[in-house]
Amino acid sequence: MHGIFVIDEAGIVRASVGFENLRGEAALFGGALSAIQLFVKEISGNEVRELTFGETRLLIGKAGTDYIVTLHSLSEEDAESSNRAVQKLIQERRTPVDDGSLSLILSMMAVGREVSEKGRLKLDESDESTWGKTRPSTKDGRKKVI
Q1: DSSP string spanning 35-61?
Q2: Using one digit for the tens of pLDDT, what is the confidence trace for 96-132?
Q3: What is the dotted CATH code of the domain comprising 3-145?
Q4: Which of 64, 70, 81, 112 has the greatest CB tally within 10 Å of its CB?
Q5: Lateral strand order in the sheet of 66-73
């Protein structure tokens, strides 16, 4: 997994990690995704679950009213299960999701390809003040500065 994005129904990117793996602006990305979802809902009653372009695959799920988008390579075999695990973690959060919490989730997913119970506990035990201060410090978004 190369990135995670939380986008509300209006197309506003609420939190993201790994956007540097795409070209363009976060606001344009969120707006475009929201517009595609609205269009597809209008003509078919369904939502887009996946977009593929080049060697990149976006998987789209929901947590509450927000879209959870995960960025994968086409060759990633466990992309669907990773996307579901991220959706579940975000759905279970008791505090708002921000860039720092997504960075931690991405790191946990990269290490084990699954979110372990120990990782969930660590995510639950972290307080809001730490999340707000956590920011990616490298291009791949897997290291953090607190």
Answers
A1: HHHHHHHHHHS----EEEETTEEEEEE
A2: 888 888 888 888 877 655 444 455 555 555 544 444 4
A3: 3.30.450.30
A4: 70
A5: 13-17, 3-7, 66-73, 56-63, 50-53
Q: What is the mean pLDDT of the chain?
A: 78
Pick the closest to residue 87 from 63, 122, 113 (CA basis).
Answer: 63
Distance CA 107, CA 64 (A): 23
| Ranges in the chain, pLDDT < 50 | 114-117, 127-146
Q: 95: helix, coil or strand?
A: coil
* Domain spans, the chain: 3-145
Paired tokens of 130: 């730490």
Tokens coding 44: 């078919």
Cβ-contact 6, 15 below 8 angstroms: yes
Nearest Cα to 21, choosing from 34, 3, 38, 33?
Answer: 3
